[in-house]
Amino acid sequence: MTAYLITNVSVLGAAPTDLLIRDGVVAEAGTGLAAPDAVVVNGTGLVALPGLVDLHTHLREPGREDAETVETGSRAAALGGYTAVCAMANTSPVADTAGVVEQVWRLGREAGLVDVQPIGAVTVGLAGERLAELGAMADSAARVRIFSDDGHCVADPRLMRRALEYVKAFDGIVAQHAEEPRLTEGAQMHEGEVATRLGLTGWPAVAEEAIIARDVLLAEHVGSRLHVCHVSTAGSVGVLRQAKARGVQVTAEVTPHHLLLTDEKAATYDPVYKVNPPLRTAADIAALRTALAEGIIDIVATDHAPHAVEDKECEWAYARPGMLGLETALSIALDVLGPQWDLIAERMSRAPARIAGLAEHGHDPAPGAPANLTLVDPAARRTVEPIELASRSRNTPYARMTLPGRIVATFLRGVATVLDGKAVK
Prior knowledge:
alpha/beta; Urease, subunit C, domain 1; 2 domains; five-stranded parallel sheet; 19 strands; 29% helix; globular
């Protein structure tokens, strides 16, 4: 295995130091290190972070390889500074059996760019009618610990309770797509002034908030772990704040786009801005940013949702919801939070690794730690060009925007997956 000597790099914004990576771990840290056999990486002006971990990625394989594959999504993740991603279950066939989650897990291992941890479906076929093979997926080679019907809400409270009770047996977690479907039928965007002006059916904030309120009560009742996907409203933040104050085992995520983009983007009728949950208001964004800084929202998760051209470049009403996120997430976090490196490491690496139970990830670069890390140039600025993205799809809402920060290198267990901003393989 190739050894790497990263010179004069700042670990989480601290004074410059050298890092020697050997045999999959950070072997040494200090000034003036020498290693004649190591490849030298000049870290001057760079910041070293623990490799990022995404709790919410759509890789589309199996079934929609025209939009993304495990390999192309893994490459996009590595270029975004990630060393682990959790792959959502809404594939075709749905990842609701041990066989499908093992297929995704093995494809990730073959790609070798990031650790791909499958998320299993809560219900068979995401239909919300009966529980999937939760125990079999947990016992499989993929060792699934997170279960979600993302894209669909587990709307039946009795079924949701059963799922929360079931996963307790192996310290699992249910990740809910919080959307009361009877309140969002035909919805096209956030319910508010902009929707009224555009004549589009609104998606009310209460549809999200009502499910979160119900589910934190269920999780509290059965003593189980709940994770709330892509929180998007100020009201949801209030529900989570109260739940955490009571000691409910609930964690939550926010996406980069819900931290930056408002429902005003829909005024162009450009389907790239159609997403579920929809883009909300400036007041919601302010509440989400505060909650993220305070820890009421635990993590940033991309909800990376690649779509084929024909699924996005069409009339708004027929376009599928979703945006790319893996290659731009750290830049958006820098834009929103500024260079608060410890906070960024906590929200984008340590906390998601803890929630997912990924023991090798989320460790700050230090002697003895697994060498899962990324190097960032905070002074760089780049203009997002869709054609240059590694994803197989092009539905980025940040096209031609100039964003701060550039991923220079990413290492997975001491193996360089990105060097000088380019994928190694």
